[in-house]
Amino acid sequence: MEENIKLVKEFTHTPQIMRQGIRVYQKKFVYPRAIIKSVVYLLMIVGVVALILSGKLSESFKILGYLAFVGLISLIFRELFNPLKQRDNIVQTIAANEFNPIYRLTVKEKTIEILTVEDEADSEDLSEDDTDIESDESCDTEDTVIPIDGSLKLIEENEFFLISAYSNMIYYIIPKADFSAEELEIMRKINK
Q1: Coil, strand or helix at 109
Q2: Cys-Cys with 3: which of 24, 80, 108, 172 at CB 3.0–4.6 Å?
Q3: pTM given for the model
Q4: Phi, psi at 135, each rounded to 5°
Q5: Which strand (E) or helix (H) includes residue 187?
Q6: How far apart are CA 32 and CA 26, in angstroms?
Q7: Where residue 37 falls among pLDDT bands split at 50, 70, 90?
């Protein structure tokens, strides 16, 4: 039995919306974990420094203590600055592409489907020998089905919706730019 379709919308991303969306995702889901890990590493650093300064370690163990100190400092640095680096890499990749992929959002009663539709550059590159493509669906490259349940998180910002699912392991940024007032209301009521 086919689910009742509430909304079908195609969209693309701009670098600005992606930067803002990733920042919101990281602030909400990535940085809290990174801060907890950094505090644990900091406590370990305090323990290592206390051992080194206590004078109870032999010279060979002091060298290991110094190495542990440097290693823990680098882990803190990685936890706090990798998300920033990842965000910049994603945004630069989007900004460098001449043709952004087109995504299709389908909101149903119990699921949300987001798929990447082949972008214009790929469709122009198809040669005349590729006549076995019969429908638009055969051009789809990626399909994600997200159940609408308690694990789905929908965050609304001024310019986009952020959908997070599967224990916040995946997220999608849906720009509001081309949404009508009715479509915005459908999005707001997804998880209610």
Answers
A1: coil
A2: 108
A3: 0.76
A4: -135, 165
A5: helix 181-188
A6: 9
A7: very high
